[in-house]
Amino acid sequence: MFDPKAEAMSLDERAALQRHRLWGLVDRLLAADGVQGRRLKDAGVGGGSDVTLAGLPNLPFTTKQDLWDHYPFGMLAVPRDQVAAVHGSSGTRGRPTLVAYTKADLDLWAAMCARSLSCAGASPGSIVHNAYGYGLFTGGIGIHQGAVALGATVVPMSGGMTDRQVRMLADLRADVLTCTPAYALRLGEALADAGAEPTALKSGLFGAEPWTEELRAAIENVLPIKAMDIYGLSEVIGPGVATECLEQDGLHVNEDHFIVETVDPSTGEPVKDGTPGELVFTAPTKQALPLLRYRTGDIASLTRGECPCGRTLVRMSKVLGRADDMLVVRGVNVYPSEVERVLLGSGLVRPHYQLVVDRRSPATRLLVACEALSGNPRNELVHALHESLGLTAEVFVLPGGTVPRVEVGKAVRVVTWEDGAAPLPGLA
Ligand code: DLL
Questions:
Q1: What predicted TM-score, i.e. pTM, was given to this entire model?
Q2: Which is the closest atom of ligand 1 to the Cα of 137?
Q3: What is the reported pLDDT for 323?
Q4: Distance from residue 138's CA to the centre of ligand 1 (Å)
């Protein structure tokens, strides 16, 4: 463990620490007198000591809309000249979300990513091949700083230029690979095509987009590694909010710094541990942008109890999807990740697929483009999707190499066909 004292702390000790930090956060938000502080006052909170951990669900939420309304610097809890860096995500829905870090926030972020890397099997001296994108996106620079903090050697590849990545993996013999799960597959294929043996690789830390157990099996099939999941979002800090350990049984949330709740996405009311709900985070130790009860839109469940790895941190399940990414096809609600589970679980297709929502006429169609391992398993896949998900989908088995591979950025699993030519050749 990078920080055994924090990661294996007794539950009582951690609760006391969280309470203390939550009080400090409430005091800082009230003093900053921004939107979060004003909402606290309206809720009758006059100081940190008015709140308890158990009473957290009674405090006001913060949302992405708040960040947009106060874009770019309106939610800072420190003077602008104390901001050491900004990051953010481009957002698939157009508007950028910008977040700010003080020097202390950057140190915290590096420590959280060092924990994540260590959780996934990296150690001082490891060579970390980092193929997350560098730039405003938090993946590249976040993991980079974590690797440095851990005492590892980081290879700052960023995304794309796959031939060069293959060369570096072979020449530098990295033992840890960090990138999106879709790009891990692409790299696995490219290494095989080049006849390169990435024998030094032992583990991978993949995140920034939803991926299923079935995709994990596909990655572990093309690369000689254990594939671990890492979760985070710019608003909370970036990567390093939660990570799977080598047990691969849930992602340990760094809850001494990110207090997590799950709520019903439609009512905002708390849901029980073990039940999927929307993840809500409070980041009490962040300085520049300390968010109280931030609604992520991501759906997952929580499990408490000790893990064989020794960490006492609460675990979140893999993310099922974002509440707003749910597809509604002829009255059936389905997350893209559920389709992935059925497709890849069938053992009939390669791990590359694309969902196309055809909205050219009022009766929405879901088209599933994939590549077969052999033959044409179209009918079997249509049947499996209907059996498992109640979903009526049209499956198109395309020639090998036709489904777009991800080179840079996050995989876009779903595209909408509004009019004009099909988004992929071969769809009717
Ligand atoms: O994606 C931070 C990150 C970078 C996480 C690298 C892990 C690795 P954003 O660009 O702000 O930040 O996007 C955050 O991505 O709300 C989720 O919807 C999704 N996401 C992130 N990690 C996972 C994951 C980074 N492991 C949004 N599983 C989040 C599923 C994920 N979804």
A1: 0.97
A2: 10
A3: 86
A4: 9
Angle at 309 between CA 291 and CA 204, to 5 degrees: 70
Nearest ligand 1 atom, CA 238: 2
Question: Are 411 and 180 in contact, with CB atoms under 8 Å apart?
Answer: yes
Looking at ligand 1, which residue's alpha carbon is closest to its atom 12?
Answer: 233
Q: Please check whether residue 149 is in contact with residue 192, taking contact to mean a CB–CB distance below 8 angstroms.
A: no
Cβ count within 10 A of residue 124: 11
Q: How many residues are there in the chain?
A: 428
Q: Consecutive 10-residue runs of the chain (428 residues): their mean pLDDT?
A: 97 98 98 97 97 97 95 95 94 79 98 98 97 97 98 97 96 97 96 89 97 97 96 98 98 98 97 98 98 97 95 98 89 93 96 95 93 96 96 95 92 94 90
Measuring from atom 29 of ligand 1, which residue has the nearest CA? 233
How far apart CA 223 and CA 217 sit, in angstroms, is: 10
Q: What is the dihedral of CA 100, 104, 105, 108, to 10 degrees?
A: 170
Distance 194 CA to ligand 1 centre (A): 30
3-state secondary structure of 354: strand
Say which CATH topology domain 326-417 has.
Answer: GMP Synthetase; Chain A, domain 3 (3.30.300)
**pLDDT of 38:** 97
| Res 343: pLDDT | 97
Q: What spacing in Å lies between the alpha carbon of 208 and ligand 1's midpoint?
A: 3
Q: What is the best residue among 209, 301, 320, 406 to mutate for testing ligand 1's pocket, by most ligand atoms within 8 Å of CB? A: 209
CA dist., res. 357 & res. 345, Å (int): 22
How does DSSP classify residue 255?
T
Whether residue 224 is preceded by a cis peptide bond, meaning omega within 30 degrees of 0, is no
Q: Domain segments of the chain: what residues?
A: 1-323, 326-417
Q: What is the DSSP string of 282-310?
A: E-TT-SSS--SSEEEEEEE-EE-S--TTS
Amino acid at 236: V
What is the CB < 6 Å shell around ligand 1?
89, 132, 137-139, 207-210, 229-234, 238-239, 296, 298, 319, 322
Distance between CA 398 and CA 224 in Å, rounded?
A: 28
Residue 229 Cα: closest atom of ligand 1:
26
Q: 287 CA to middle of ligand 1, Å?
A: 21
CATH number of 1-323: 3.40.50.12780
